[in-house]
């Protein structure tokens, strides 16, 4: 397994490339995650809202891999339309652990900041307790904006280990990445392949792929890795699951990176997913 590890700000090592399971039905998750673990992935990204923690947990149990070889991430879903209370957060976390059949996760994330609910600082204080208990080795956030990270810093003790955000060449998040670097927060890219849509068909991407004799997906994953991003590409197709891990035998040149950087620079950058300012 050639996947490099990223050292998080709490000292934990996280594989730089993992396997994401959004939109994988629970009944299919055991096979899909099993295929990924067999292929050599050691990091799995799920969430309570994906509804596939149980299938993921079955695959992990069936893999025969030692627990310390695996890095399992799950996420606290957006609460009811009122604020989350401490006990509700702890119950949601217990429920995720039970479905995953684990006594701890490696990373637990607040899925969305929901700034209109004004409760993420309180949730984060419960995450600090969860981290102190050892039931999550690391805790972090997802979809947090610079202002949200500023509030966490001003009103709590622990710095999130990770912020998992939409990030790909069409939405490169330059400003947010600079904030992460300043605060010591690792950048994790969701929809790293732009959900396998337009991005992988752009001539700028396919030309680089042809030059290296690699696929467009592999070129985009290299762009992330060479920028230092943690990535969690998703596929349920065994050949693509393996292809997305087979990205350590070549390197993009500086000119390739610059060409990919140009795709979403400045005003050209656009999201595929929801805007965290409004998503509830
Ligand atoms: P992705 O960018 O990983 O794209 C996945 C899609 O790309 C696949 O469904 C397939 O259609 C295509 N694809 C995959 N490999 C390919 C290949 N080798 N060649 C051609 N096409 C290929 O999109 P994603 O699933 O949205 O994101 C990855 C993971 O990020 C998710 O599974 C989930 O774990 C996480 N995520 C988190 C959030 C969040 O709010 N925190 C939001 C979205 C996704």
TrEMBL record:
<feature type="domain" description="NADP-dependent oxidoreductase">
    <location>
        <begin position="17"/>
        <end position="263"/>
    </location>
</feature>
<dbReference type="InterPro" id="IPR020471">
    <property type="entry name" value="AKR"/>
</dbReference>
<protein>
    <submittedName>
        <fullName>Diketogulonate reductase-like aldo/keto reductase</fullName>
    </submittedName>
</protein>
<dbReference type="InterPro" id="IPR023210">
    <property type="entry name" value="NADP_OxRdtase_dom"/>
</dbReference>
<comment type="similarity">
    <text>Belongs to the aldo/keto reductase family.</text>
</comment>
<dbReference type="InterPro" id="IPR018170">
    <property type="entry name" value="Aldo/ket_reductase_CS"/>
</dbReference>
<dbReference type="InterPro" id="IPR036812">
    <property type="entry name" value="NAD(P)_OxRdtase_dom_sf"/>
</dbReference>
<keyword id="KW-0560">Oxidoreductase</keyword>
<dbReference type="Pfam" id="PF00248">
    <property type="entry name" value="Aldo_ket_red"/>
</dbReference>
<keyword id="KW-0521">NADP</keyword>
């Amino acid at each position: 397994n050639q996947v490099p590890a990223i050292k998080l700000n709490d000292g934990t090592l996280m594989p730089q490339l993992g396997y994401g399971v959004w939109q994988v039905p629970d009944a299919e998750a055991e096979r899909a995650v099993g295929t990924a673990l067999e292929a050599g992935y050691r990091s799995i990204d799920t969430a309570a809202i994906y509804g596939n923690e149980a299938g993921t947990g079955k695959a992990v149990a069936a893999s025969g891999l030692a627990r310390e070889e695996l890095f399992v991430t799950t996420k606290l879903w957006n609460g009811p339309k009122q604020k989350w209370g401490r006990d509700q957060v702890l119950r949601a976390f217990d429920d995720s652990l039970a479905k995953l059949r684990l006594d701890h996760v490696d990373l637990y994330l607040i899925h969305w900041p929901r700034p209109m609910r004004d409760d993420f600082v309180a949730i984060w204080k419960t995450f600090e307790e969860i981290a102190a208990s050892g039931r999550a080795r690391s805790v972090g956030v997802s979809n947090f904006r610079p202002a949200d990270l500023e509030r966490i810093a001003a009103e709590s003790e622990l710095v999130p280990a990770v912020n998992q955000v939409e990030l790909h060449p069409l939405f490169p998040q330059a400003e947010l990445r600079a904030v992460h670097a300043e605060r010591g927060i690792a950048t994790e890219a969701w929809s790293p392949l732009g959900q396998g849509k337009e991005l992988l068909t752009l001539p700028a991407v396919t030309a680089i792929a042809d030059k290296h004799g690699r696929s467009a997906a592999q070129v985009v994953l290299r762009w992330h890795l060479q920028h230092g991003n943690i990535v969690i590409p998703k596929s349920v197709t065994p050949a693509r699951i393996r292809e997305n891990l087979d990205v350590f035998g070549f390197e993009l040149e500086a000119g390739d990176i610059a060409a990919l950087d140009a795709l979403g620079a400045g005003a050209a950058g656009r999201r595929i997913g929801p805007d965290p300012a409004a998503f509830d």
